[in-house]
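Issue 218. Parser rejects a valid record. Input:
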Amino acid sequence: AAAVLLGSLTLMPGFIVFPLCGILLAKGVPYMVLSGFSTSLMMVGVVTYPIEKELFGSRLAIYRNLACLGIALVVAIITGLVFGEIG
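Output the parser choked on:
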């Protein structure tokens, strides 16, 4: 959960996220953590919330970010189950 929260607070493009996850994988970080981190980095936009609020309105921006945060958690759990890291 900490990786998902950290990922949601930062903003990085995909061409940086995926090599970073490769480096972290080489250091021994579990796939479950990497999937939650990378998914939240790409989908959740705490940093971009002011722009989203202006374009979509605050209610939709909050709902979108909460939905993406939930999806990132689900992806991390499924990854952990598939790779046998939890369960």
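Fixed in the parser; the record now loads. The chain has five helices and no strands.
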